[in-house]
Amino acid sequence: MIETEAVLRELMIAGQSGGATQYRRLLTALKTRLEVYFRRRLADRAAAEDLVQEALMAIHVKRDTYDPAQPFTAWAYAIARYKLIDHFRRNRLRTHVPLDEAEFLGETDTGFAEAEARMDVGRLMETLPEGQAQALRLTKLDQLSVAEAAEKSHSGISAIKVSVHRGMKALMAKRGAQKD
Length: 180
Known about the structure:
Helix content: over 70%
Order of helices and strands: HHHHHHHHH
Number of helices: 9
Number of strands: 0
Strand content: under 5%
Shape: flat
Structural class: mainly alpha
């Protein structure tokens, strides 16, 4: 039986609350979906099976980070995608991998791109000095004015402007380096 997004989400929430039966059911359903996901992207079946296990372990370890207000499958497949990318990097593989998420989700999930983007932004922000990351978070993500960001961070307006400028410049440099 293919579980829907709503069912998987409820199973995850129950699992986070200690429901062992629901959590086992969730992992079983995810195992099937992840097998399809990895086998479509890898010719090596053994590597695909290893990645299924790695993804399930990562989902288990990071289960407390799942926000029940967000789509569950987007969160789970973002973790799987990062495991696939790690596999390619580890094995120094350079290949075109079609990432048509709707194809492997089994249903259209508009939250996937948003959740994936949020994880990407989070990873990039972690590479910045705290002051720059905070200034960007407040002005760009939380959409506060420079004055509001300065007040909230107990900084001056000029300091916020400089931090935003330097943070954006650093992110653009990192983005440019990734394209090369």
